[in-house]
Amino acid sequence: MASELSLSIRSRRPAFPAAGSKARPFVLQAILLAPVLGWVTAFFLVPIGLMIWRSFAEAGLAPYVTILTSPVYLKVLITTLKICLLTTLGCLALGYPIAYVLTVARPAGRGVVLILVILPYWLDYIVRSYSWMILLGRRGLVNQLVLSLGLSERPLSLLYTLFSVSIGMIQILLPLMILTLFGAMLRIDRRLLDAAAIHGASRWRAFRTVFLPLSLPGVYAAGLLVFVSALGFYITPALLGGPEQTMISQTIMVLASDLLNWPLASAAGVLLLVVTTVLLALYNRFFSLDRMFGGVTT
Amino acid sequence: MSVVAANDRGRPRSESEARVARAGARVRLERLTKFFGRVRAVDEVSLEIPSGSFVTLLGPSGSGKTTTLNLIAGFLAPDAGEIQFDGRAISALPPHKRNIGMVFQSYALFPHMTVFENVAYPLRMRDRLRRDAMRARVTETLALVQLSGFEARYPRQLSGGQQQRVSMARALVSGPRLLLMDEPLGALDKKLREQLQTEIKQIHRQIGSTFVYVTHDQSEALTMSDLIVVMHHGRIVQIGSPPEVYETPVNAFVADFLGGANLLSGQMVSRHGDTCDVRIANGQVIAVPRGGLAESEGAAVSIFIRPEDIRILPPEQRPHGRVGTPATIRDVVYLGEALKVTALVGDQMVSVRTLRSEVDRLAPGRDVFLAWAPQSSRLLPPADER
Fold first, then answer.
1. CB A194 to CB B110 under 8 A?
2. Domain count of chain B?
3. Which pLDDT score is estimated for B166?
């Protein structure tokens, strides 16, 4: 007891005493964490555990074998990955320039652009998906414009295609891409661009040789984040896609509520969870890489 | 790994080194003005920087020295006035076409490139050299800043001093005729700073480019410069060689900024020829050389005198040929190589630097006489008129 006292006095941090007196803060931490731990356990860990258990309980590995070998489910998996990849690339192509403009803009202009970026985020995405149906339908705005300009004889089939699903998902996920990229780009020291310019680099070459490489860790991080978010999309592909664009979440829904094949639905859910977890682990890796680059320049 | 002796002056100059050694740029600023909002950050600054000289812009933060440097670099566009290199107006040129080298306070090294790639960057952007010629130039420049053998390291693997050397090498490698340095030693500790000051000076002599150096450190300015430009509130207050600005400051601000000056405020009582008599707060009348100041009798003035020019004498002693005033010692601080004594003259504090050996005679509360040679003092406008 005496040594414990002298230790905490010497370090002057009684809140973090040395070894031997861990008991009290541990109890306090446990009490503080209990509500959230209880919540996570009851509504997150237990259901996931149940899902995993259910996927194996009735037929062992059979549901997994079915999903990974049957052409139907494989096609759904591939379609899901394809749509997610398209969405990610589309978000990147549209988001990178906007994030760059945000980074180099003056504070006043930056505020305006940021509001424009975040505004759609507050709209419910069911509403946004329906808006795309109005725009892209057979008698939609786009087709009326195409017909009146004489660009085509018949209305184009824009809705219920890969295109309509991707564009709907891109619009929903774009703010996430822009804000993540913007956060990463802000950490790039602007003096580096001055250094490049004064030593002979034009604006374009300074961008290509300095800004772009330093922004790549941010690009990877934002890309993975968007990709992972896209994996679980349900409403948008259901509203804007045709049968060809069925994604894994829709399949799980059909298996669980229409076909009542719970083991198969559970197995598909577990697979989605595994892919997501692996990608998030990758994200973590790139995110720390990003920090490593950002830390040097400050 | 072959170690190249950087200070080997006897070594015959290689072709590229001779190319580096062409004459420095002559820079002329004409009524240069820059606003930040409604603040005149740089206010009608006119300056002639001779070819090959080492010019320091000296001033406190917010004095406009860094803004002036950024205008010369082209990172900012002036609101009025002109910049000329060798008589050619360059205000319209973007930074990458001005052919300048620059060392940044934060080093601004590219974190994703090795030391070699950082130093080779200006060559890659500007000179389009062949690979082996480029390699030779980088190796040579790294030897100049004594960093041979560090080519493959990344900036984060280097100490602050080494990073600053890389930054120097990058600025020097393509042989720019003008080199800008923005408080390059600000983040380093005192010993390293002094060592690098000497090395920068040496490099300047070796390559002959024009150097424009920005600092708020007066001792750095005094040791390194050919010409010191003292700035305050966006204006140039004084231009001169280090002895000129140190010994004959034009006003109280310059006197005070260049190393703790004493300014005794008083009133001019009479003038005769080159000297005049000033009555200070405690009633003492002191003779001061008039300098260029055209104040009339009765005007408020201040007497400028450096701490190291004052001698502390016993109170009854009145040395011949010296002027001075009675004072009371307030405080004695041991500095190592000297003593810093604070004395009270009336209600004004005067600081004195004196020899360590005098410590026995000096104690707080003792009455003394502060004496100095009249020619080491100077008449300046009153202290509050900055």
1. no
2. 2
3. 96
Least CB-CB distance to A194: which of B75, B98, B171? Answer: B75
CA-to-CA separations, B35 to A89, B41, B66, B80, B180, in angstroms, rounded: 43, 5, 13, 9, 22
What secondary structure letter does DSSP report for B14?
P
Over residues B149-177, mean pLDDT: 94
**For the whole prediction, is pTM greater than 0.90?**
no
Q: Does A205 touch chain B (CB under 8 A)?
A: yes
Pairwise CB contact (< 8 Å): B108 & A197: no
B277 near B286, Cβ under 8 Å? yes
Compare A18 and B35 and report the one with higher pLDDT: B35
Show which of B225, B247, B269 is a domain's final residue: B247
Of the listed ranges A1-5, A117-121, B23-27, B375-379, the least confidently predicted one is A1-5
Same domain, B163 and B272: no
Residue B258 tokens read as 């260049």
| ipTM of predicted complex | 0.81
Q: Are residues B164 and B270 in the same domain?
A: no
Q: Does A213 contact chain B (CB < 8 Å)?
A: yes
Residue of A nearest to B117 (CA): A209
CATH number at residue B376: 2.40.50
* Beta-ladder partners of A186: none
* 3-state DSSP assignment of residue A77: helix
Residue B298 forms part of a structural domain:
yes
B234 plus B334 within the same structural domain: no
- Looking at every residue in chain A, the average pLDDT score rounds to 85
Closest CA–CA distance from residue A194 to any residue of chain B (Å): 7
Which of these three, B247, B276, B299, is where a domain ends?
A: B247
Q: Which residues in chain B have Cβ-Cβ distances shorter than 8 Å to A293?
A: 111-112
Q: Is A10 on the interface with B (CB under 8 A)?
A: no
Residue B260 has what pLDDT? 76
Give dist(CA A35, CA A48) in Å, integer. Answer: 19
Asked if pLDDT for residue A220 goes beyond 80, the answer is yes
Using CB atoms within 10 A of its CB, is residue B59 exposed (0-12), middle (13-18) or buried (19+)?
buried
Domain assignment of residue B294, given as a range: 253-308+325-380
Q: Work out how many CB contacts closer than 8 A connect A with B.
A: 79
Name the residue among A194, A206, A293 with its Cβ closest to that of B112.
A293
